Amino acid sequence: MSHKSFFATITAAVLLALGTAGTALAGTTAATQSTAVTKGTTVAAAAAATAGCGKAPTLASGTHSIASGGQNRSYILRVPAGYDANHPYRLVFGFHWNGGTANDVDSGGTDGYNWSYYGLRRLADAAGNGTIFVAPQGNNNGWANPGGQDLTFVDNMLGQIEAGLCVDTDQIFSTGFSYGGGMSYALACARATVFRAVVVYSGGQLSGCNGGTQPIAYMGVHGIGDPVLNISQGRGLRDRFVRNNGCTAQSPPEPRSGSLSHIVTAYSGCRSGYPVVWAAFDGGHTPGPIDGCNCDGWRTWTSGEAWKFVTQFQTTPPTSPSPSPTASPSGN
User: Which pTM does this prediction carry?
Assistant: First the structure.
């Protein structure tokens, strides 16, 4: 992942997108009660195999093209080493930010493999339990989703991947930073019965919210000093699924400015299988804050927390990898 100059570029690009798109962004405030410990409960899910199971794969790692909505779109696919056609795999989408690319997500940028797919690919490999990753490429390097065209793109990718590879349809996830977080939120709204959970890093309502009335497991990560998408916008995204998931209304604790720390809160009272987690940190617009410094990188705590959130839905508890430092909450 790139460092300060990289995120300065993201800041400028997102501000430009907000100015031209005229997207209405809203935040709401929850009330009362808090907890600073994420749940470690494993939610069992039976593997639901796709048409690609039990036969030779028709897709391999690399860049793929697909016709979607009258356009030629592309995505990068990462198939696990030692792929087994009889094993249904978890599938994780990684959406890039405004001005970013699918290659940035897949390659990990200047941090390379360690930050590939926001650090989740490294943790999946360390766990050894197999995950297929896909990095879609947005039109004009963004996710404006006009007329739902990016939702259709995701539908088409899923159709192609599920036909060509063995995927567990109960283990499909979306992650994304900034504009990519907005796209993951749009999927949570419109494809809650397709995706098991989403992880939104520093997101806002940038790609719309068609539907938005069904429950889906939701994790939001946001900086209290975000100058691009104010944390109130991230809270608003979160609160939709606090309501949809039947969670107890809370005002989760957030670290004080200058603490260079983070606090992770798991909401109580949520419907079984539909947790909501909120991770607030003292920092700006980044998916990779590091406690104790005004810096970011692959050693962030966010990848470990996101991996823990995603893997809680499998039948067999995941092997604990050795993630980067500070995977546990830090104090105010």
Answer: 0.84
